[in-house]
Amino acid sequence: MPDIERDRIFGEWLAGHKGILFKVVHAYAFEHADRQDLFQEVAVQVWRSVDAFRGNSSVPTWMYRVALNTAMAWTRKEGRHRRGKEPFEGMEGLLTTESAAQRDPRVEWLYQQIAQLKDVDRSVALLLLDGFSYKEIASVVGLTESNVGVKINRIKSALAGKRMEETKS
């Protein structure tokens, strides 16, 4: 495919679905510079993947797959990206473009907890929050639908347990 056509398709994908990339980047990178680096890496990988897209899944599903695989490889490649798992205070626009006054503390808490999950569980949680079906989640992360269901139930139970612990203290 000529670069001009790839650029056009990539531009359409990015215009329509860049929120997917931001969500993945914010779930895997926690410092401003790391988020910028990862976003650039993910965007490049999505651009490169345009030729490989065959339409067997939706564009958002495809972009999630590329973004999640890129983010997981990026975090494995250099341990320095894990150093920022603690400092959430002061983060601007945590997985949203809303202003700080409009952010729901429950949503912030949820994404903080998701950031602590293992890579596959984190991916499953993000996809579930975006309304993907078990079948689509299974396709993106490479699991069976039943395994996705088990993971979702375990994630929900773990999050509910953490929330209960925090309300008791």
Low-confidence spans? 83-101
What value does the Rg take, in angstroms?
16 Å
- Percent range of helical residues: 55-70%
Distance between the termini: 58 Å
Instruction: Name the structural class.
Output: mainly alpha
Shape: globular
Question: Can you describe this structure?
Answer:
Helix 1 runs antiparallel to helix 2 (32-49) and helix 5 packs antiparallel against helix 6 (134-141). The protein contains 7 helices and no strands. The model is unreliable at 83-101 (pLDDT under 50). With 169 residues, the protein is mainly alpha-helical. It has one domain: RNA polymerase sigma factor, region 2, helix turn helix motif (Rna Polymerase Sigma Factor, Chain: A, Orthogonal Bundle), CATH 1.10.1740.10.
Set out the fold topology.
Blueprint: H1 3-28, H2 32-49, H3 59-77, H4 105-115, H5 119-129, H6 134-141, H7 145-168
Helix pairs in contact: 1-2, 1-3, 2-3, 3-6, 5-6, 5-7, 6-7
Short description:
The chain is mainly α and 169 residues long. 69% of the residues lie in helices and 0% in strands.
Features:
single chain; 169 residues; mainly alpha; 69% helix
